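Data deposition worksheet. Section B asks for the primary sequence of the deposited chain exactly as it was used as input, without tags or linkers unless they were present during the calculation. Section C holds the resulting structure in token form. Section D is free text for depositor observations; keep each observation to a single sentence. Incomplete worksheets are returned to the depositor.
Section A, Depositor: J.P.
Section B:
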Amino acid sequence: MFSSMVKMARQRSVGELKKNNGHYLLVNVASGRVLDVSGAKCANGTNVQQYELNHTNAQLWDFVSRQDGGYFIKSCLGDYVLDISGGSVSNGANAQIFGWNATNAQVWSLIKIAQTIDDGLYRLGSMIDGSQVVDVPGGSLNDTAQVQLYGSNDTLAQYWTFAYNKSTGYYTVRSAVSGKVLGCRGGGVSNGTAVQQYVENGTTAQWWRVVANADGSVSLISANSGLALDVPGANSSNGSKLQLYAANGTMAQKWTLSVPSVFLHDGLYEIYSRVDGNRLVDVAGGSKADDAKLQVWNRNGTLAQKWSISVCDDGSVLLKCANSGKYISQSDGKLTSVKESTEGSHWVPRVSPKGGLILVNAVSGTVIDLTGGNAAAGTALQLYFNNLTAAQAWHFVSTSLVDDGYYVVVNQSNDGRVLDVAGGSCNAGTRVQLYSANGTNAQKWRVRALGNGVYSLTAFVSGKALDVPGGNASNGSFVQQWDWNGSGAQMWVFRLADEGGIAIYSALNDGAYALADTSSGLVLDDSSCSLWRFDSTVVSEQPYADANAAQKRLVDIAYSVPSPGYNLCSERISRVFNAAGYGYADGDACDMFWAYCRDSNRANLKVGMIIAVPSHSNTWAGSIWGHIAIYIGDGKVIENIGRINVRGLDDWVNYYGTTYTPLWGWYRNIALC
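Section C:
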């Protein structure tokens, strides 16, 4: 490296010296071109450039030493030396040849770039606050993600592989989570340039000099600009984005290096291929057989794609399928699944240069590999020798046992029986039971995570929550549906069972009682539990959670507008929508049916739509004027029957659909979504 004595932090050139007939060539290591006097012109101010090697005197230089250790760099064209125009200290100042004047603009120091740290994996801690480290936000895999400071958490997002290049004298610094390298955004050379991760491109924007400081720390200097990796304003709070800044020796530019030893934590994960981030490790068909095919597949949220990771004392890990309770193992050079872990079930995680982890079998030394590097859904996994390709790199993403959504909750000991609201009732206090699967809304449940492994289950047919009566969790207590009240009686803890599947425990009494299928029916029990599978299902109508602000506002108004009296169902509809700002529609339910209701496909039923029949056989008034309600989501409607009444959609359709098929549509044809 050549540095002008004008200001060594600014005027830098990255190169190597090659002797040629007693003189020197100055070769730029980034481009391979040599330092050249433009046009071989012998005159003060002639520009100096990089140029292809041509072996002329315009490219040959002599070094004249000074007593202070500096050098004049003399051109072989004549009595001219390498000079910084005007003695400028600015970025971009021009280099030229000029007659000898012995000013600092003509004095250069040679700094040998040497390997200062061993190649390897490191954590970069800030000297401002030792608990804060260089981090890729959210473990992003994306180009241009700007790195930040964040509290140390022993994840791959905070580990960096340093690799020294003897040809250039610089390091590349590669993210363990993404495989992308640290560099300056856009090749920037000014103070404040963002420091980001980006796919390796071989430019000096991604090269770093690691400077060892007297206090044991290091500084990272960009080869592109001579600027240092810096914490803006020395602000060490979580999320502080890192930048380049003129080297100043402050704590904001000093970093400690430590060698990480933790690559995974105990927990539940999905394992994605680095060949294609949309494919993850899956057990074909959710099989529980020892010889079940391991493959990559599109995400479907099932337990067959979720893996319980246990970290052993020696740093190896065990990978247990959440669905089968079996460990991924190797036997006779093949992948297999086993109920009890063996030596062949231990996998040693190693950071891949492609980002993510390589899983090395502790017995055979072979690794889990995507056959042929083919990420098509259904491609099998295999054991293969380690070749450091993306086919052997895996990205571990922490996950929950069950995603928020709608499910049929299946008893795994009897796939034909599922969690069911007795009779499909919408009434609070109705018992929840096990019943043969029949595809009705009485067997569809909305699962919602409440945090800390606690969930709620809401019956789609009624919008009511799975509940322990009276909050009394004890042996033999049955369960029911009840209006949501947020109490512990309506909170449920999901636990992964050793043998695979999910056990559902009441959050009451420290989670001691589980849902169990007994001779007395579905009850709570502290000595046994049923195991459950959550099969994703499609609800026919728009759920309330998916409604927009206008739809939810209308539902709020529908609850607040009072009843105008008996036999005035359509009058209340008009009052509700008028209060919401959608105008007043004259006519009875029969009129509104024919004017606005045209659809019977439940997939098209949206929150805020009116649902009506022009006639029904249950009352004399209904046979003449029909009946009408508003769909409010989650399988429920709100109606006026002389009082405000909330009723299950299935119940409403079955009761009023005796003469005509109920239809739905937007009031006054004004669509709310």
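Section D:
The radius of gyration is 36 Å.
The CA atoms of residues 170 and 209 lie 5 Å apart.
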